[in-house]
From TrEMBL:
Keyword Transferase found: yes
UniProt-listed InterPro entries: PQQ_b-propeller_rpt, PQQ_rpt_dom, Quinoprotein_ADH-like_sf, WD40/YVTN_repeat-like_dom_sf
Protein name listed in UniProt: Pyrrolo-quinoline quinone repeat domain-containing protein
Chain ranges of the Pyrrolo-quinoline quinone repeat domain: 94-349
One Pfam family of this chain: PQQ_2
Organism of this sequence: Tuwongella immobilis
Keyword DNA-binding: no
SMART domains: PQQ
Keywords: Kinase, Serine/threonine-protein kinase, Transferase
Matches recorded under PANTHER family: CELL SURFACE PROTEIN, OUTER MEMBRANE PROTEIN ASSEMBLY FACTOR BAMB
GO molecular function, one term: protein serine/threonine kinase activity
Length: 427
């Protein structure tokens, strides 16, 4: 029995096209839109702020877990570029790099290399890392392992392009608690701080070849990550070492200024922020401070503008808006605060005992805080007091990595898994 082809019937054909289109169209907002890049530590501008990702007006009562994938241990934060998530982690005695499909959690590719590591007893509960967050630039992914192994990978295929094991260059290839600084690519130059306690090198490297452009010998690296800032009308690299905060000429590696800065147990861990050409930073049991550079001829001298001894920062880096500075102080077993960046005056403080550490993320007018015990707190960044919009339990273990926005989802890296939580309902 022969049946006439249905496409001869025009009305049926149109309906068939509609059905096919609906069936093949993505069902989630994440699949329907281009996912914004989050290519490095603390996002596109290294500030913890997104100007393009808009959070929901109304947050759901619970966050639905869209997918989870076991990636390995470590505090390295996920990054996003060209529609892929990249996660750096440890599996056994290997450091691994994974490329992950953001829509499903499927692993597109993974690479690894052997890297045994013995953690210092004082930080053994933090695990063997890695702690450094990768950077993606121009089709390349750069990773820096916990013992100083610097690697470049093809972001699309995972092919290793080059690798440097800095153990051969320094008596110690990582700080006491492991390498934590996150690489930066600026003006086509890869900026890394290599070495270990008491001896290191801040370097600009050609990312395509791994060859040095300039090197600046320093004391050992800190755990904080460098930024680029314009201070005293000079665009420069600002970086912590073990015992100092430095200003470095981006083109030559020449020292522009140096501010001695030490903390207990030698652990400078806070990435500075810049407000109106003022550097704002803190350190373990040290006051929150602001410094401005004064120019005398060709010489730059850091001068303190204000200091607030009630707001020491330990490992949590602050976030700066136009008129507010948000941070997480170690005092009272962990408190959130908002302060005036011009004076350091406190605007509000949260309840105490929020946790050992917290990672901050600003999306539009909403501040997201992820504590190290897996609590996600959503706040109105313009509120005059601490009044959470929502609080969620995320992850199934400690959460030291930073949360990362991914379309309508939020990526959370806990002790061993990367999880995607939906903050908007599916279409």
């Amino acid at each position: 029995m022969m049946i006439a082809p249905p496409f001869r019937r025009k009305g049926w054909f149109v309906g068939w096209l509609i059905v096919v289109a609906l069936a093949s169209s993505p069902r989630s907002g994440l699949a329907a839109e281009k996912i914004a890049d989050w290519p490095q530590w603390r996002g596109p501008d290294r500030t913890g702020i997104s100007s393009t990702i808009i959070p929901p007006r109304t947050w759901p009562k619970t966050l639905a877990e869209a997918w989870s994938v076991e990636v390995g241990t470590g505090h390295s934060s996920p990054v996003i570029a060209d529609g892929l998530i990249y996660q750096f982690a440890r599996q056994g005695d290997d450091e691994v790099v994974l490329a992950i499909d953001p829509r499903s959690g499927a692993i597109r590719w993974n690479q690894r290399y052997p890297q045994a590591y013995q953690m210092d007893q004082a930080a053994i509960e933090h695990g063997k890392g890695p702690k450094s967050t990768p950077v993606v630039h121009d089709g390349m992914l750069i990773t820096l392992g916990i013992s100083g192994t610097l690697s470049a990978w093809d972001a699309k295929t995972g092919k290793q392009l080059w690798q440097q094991r800095t153990q051969d260059r320094f008596p110690l290839s990582s700080p006491l608690y492991g390498t934590a600084m996150s690489p930066l690519i600026v003006d086509g130059r890869l900026i890394v701080h290599l070495g270990g306690n008491d001896r290191g090198s801040l370097e600009a490297i050609d990312p395509t070849s791994g060859k040095p452009i300039w090197t600046a010998s320093t004391e050992g690296p800190a755990y904080a990550s460098p930024i680029v800032a314009t201070l005293a009308k000079q665009r420069q690299l600002v970086a912590f070492t073990q015992q100092s905060l430095l200003g470095i000429d981006l083109l030559t590696g020449k020292s522009l200024w140096k501010l001695p800065y030490t903390t207990g147990y030698t652990q400078n861990s806070v990435t500075p922020v810049v407000a109106n050409e003022q550097l704002i930073f803190s350190g373990y049991q040290n006051p929150l401070v602001s410094y401005r550079l004064e120019a005398t001829g060709t010489r730059l001298t850091p001068r303190q503008v204000w200091s607030n001894s009630q707001l020491p920062l330990y490992m949590s880096s602050p976030i700066l808006t136009r008129d507010r500075l948000f941070g997480f102080t170690q005092r009272n077993s962990g408190k959130l605060f908002a302060a005036q960046p011009q004076t350091g005056q406190v605007l509000w403080e949260s309840d105490p005992r929020l946790g050992e550490n917290a990672a901050l993320l600003l999306l539009g007018s909403q501040l997201l805080t992820l504590t190290s015990d897996g609590k996600l707190i959503v706040l109105d960044a313009e509120a005059t007091r601490f009044q959470p919009i929502r609080e969620y339990a995320v992850g199934t273990s400690q959460t030291w990595a930073h949360p990362v926005p991914c379309g309508d989802w939020l990526l959370i890296k806990d002790a061993t898994h990367l999880r995607a939580y939906r903050w908007r309902a599916a279409d």
